[in-house]
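sorry for the late reply, my laptop died twice this morning and i had to redo everyting from scratch. anyway the thing you sent over, i finally got around to it. pasting the sequence first so we're on the same page, its 793 residues, then the predicted structure underneath. double check i copied it right bc i was rushing
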Amino acid sequence: MIPVAVVWLRLELGRRLRSLLVLGLLVAFAGATVLTALAGARRGDSAVDRLLAVTLPASASVLPNQSGFDWDAVRRLPGVAAVTTFPSYTELPVDEAPDDQITPFVPADTDAMATIERPVVLSGRLPDPVQADEAVVTAEFVRNVGKGVGDSVTLRLPTPEQSDTSIGARDTGGPQGPAVRMRIVGVIRSFWYADEVGGPGKLIPSPGLFTRYRANLLGDRAQVPLNGLVRLRDGEAGLARLQAALPGVDVVSRSETIQHTRNVIAFESACLAAFGLAAFLAAVVLIGQAVIRYGAAGATELNALVALGLTRRQGTHLSVIAPGLAALAGTIVAVVLAVAASSWMPFGAAAAREPNPGVDVDWLVLGAGFVLIPILVAVAAGASAWTGLTSPERLRPGRQSALVTAMTVLGLPVAVVVGARFALEPGRGRYRVPVRPALLGAVTGVLGVLAAFTFSAGVADAARNPARFGQNYQLMAIFGFDGHDFQPPRPVLSALTADPDVTGVTDLRMAAGRIGPLTVVTHSFDPVGNPVPLVLTEGRSPANGDEVVLAPTSARRLGAGVGDRVALTGDLGTRELIVTGVGFAVETSTRGYESGAWVTSDGYDVVFRGFKEHGSLLALREGADPEAVAARLRTTVGGGLLIFTPFVPRQFGEIRNVQVLPLVLGAFLALLAVGAVGHALIIAVRRRGHDLAVLRALGMTRGQCRLVVVTQASAITVLGLLAGVPLGMALGRILWRAAAGIMPLQYQPPTSPWTLILIAPLALLIAALLATGPGRHAGHCNLGQALRVLDRA
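ok and here's the structure:
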């Protein structure tokens, strides 16, 4: 058998080398795409855990926002493994960076980057903690600013007087203190020092900067408070003890942020894995038909050797050799390409948490692909050859579909009825054509396109509507801090309300309360004139002092929903409240909009004595320029008002990032549909040419033959539209609802009207174009040859 195999392989290489090369290239391209996607999904899904395992992550952010807070007492608490502090309200601009490039984190001690949040060094080294002129940056800073290891940048510090007045909520302009020339010594990454998706990057100075310029950062009177990060020996399990030891202090579990990032990455990885699956299905259709045709052609030639004693098993083995070797060569290339492409993975939120960026070898995925791809190709070629080497199946009458029967009864043209039969009936015997893959491919393609564009419509809606993230206000004002107002609040609020461009004002106080074991930043909902309404995902706003609205993450962690009762504890005592709604809080420099609570002014006064911050939310007239209104209000109210546009939630960048994969997935599924329908048309014309020959002999014209193929393509497409459009819209909304819950954001059912309008005519146009080639072949087929084939059958 081996000599025969060698001879047969030589013949195949001599006659079909080009076909085998094309097959190998198709396997290489498709295999590389699938393997890269699957390996990238696995790599991204594990990025957070791998980063946390090597960086001594913080367990909690402790935000007292109190000048003179005793951090040494925190260090002495049982279960505390490490503490690092940093000045709050620090925004240090870098001259070489765009205006939005700031340094929000200045380490105030040598524990930073050593015993807590010890970063992975991507290049260079960590800064010397005693050097005031050394800094490290994140990877996004290098990409955006173009400054990396060995380069220098200028950091602008405030004067001590500016720091003293900034805590009084005065707009002091840009920093007017020293310009410190900082040398970048490393590029780092930890979960705390990670880049946000779409963010500008970060520059982190050495702790030596704080030591040398302490007065510039804290003020002469040291009024700027120090906030901090705490690492607990038993992690999340010790958080309740830490919160109990720090009453009245906002203790934020880092697990909330970590879990959110895990959820976002899991969604991105699932989309990437789905993309890999779609690429695999497209490859099965596009490559599978080439392999099947190759195997069938080889079987036709091997039938000549059956008379000489070649068995069907031996013929099948021979037909597998050449395509199997081509597939093996293509798989080797695919593995090499997948390894090279791994440097682009992971992407999105996972890319900012990958501890080992660059080339990565996923032995499980690549090893499985290396084994399975050649086997699948060999099995497909062998099955095709086995069928070709089998004696023709006895002709049996086939069942006619109900639709074709109805069309016949209605007296529709013969060409239309025959085209519908080609689309819906597989035929019989050796001329049998699988119709289900084409129908399934058409449905899947339409479904994928509708789902992708429906999801994309949801992303576009969220991207242009900050209210989906709770921001139905355009400006924020601060005029009080740490229990002290720097201006009488009522005249300030009256002046804000009187501005012609201001349509709503909410008097806002914030304090750290506690519900059970959870620290909850509580906001007062106190409209002044027209309110700035809360953005709710369910329920209603609080109407009296016995009611509360919880933010989504806080509600989830408490296991509370609308109608439940919770006990809110503040510095004045505890009050039981009824949950009337779930809605978004205020995004701040230290807290996300997804956690917190809202109570009425009366409810706030019963539980809290003072406030951490006192200010207001301002809704503006549509079309008003927030910057112009802010400048006018500063002039109207005076120097004791800090007024600014709201903080941008990190979820804005994350939601835009997840828009890409569903669109690419939809494109691949559309490719699958085109391949499936095109393949069905070609195979139907080739295998059922005898049917067309009989009809031609009975008087069917070439134009009618072309109409048969066009009708077949149209029937498949229409059925794909009928099933795919509603399923695609439903799937798109399900995916968008899942993404809305992960972010979180206010869910609005997305619709893509232009997609709904255009998909039917575009799909039918594509079907008509696909039918052009097979239709021309059907109209010009050799009638005598087709009838001779029928006679032999």
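The first helix runs from residue 2 to 45.
thats about all i looked at so far, will dig more tmrw
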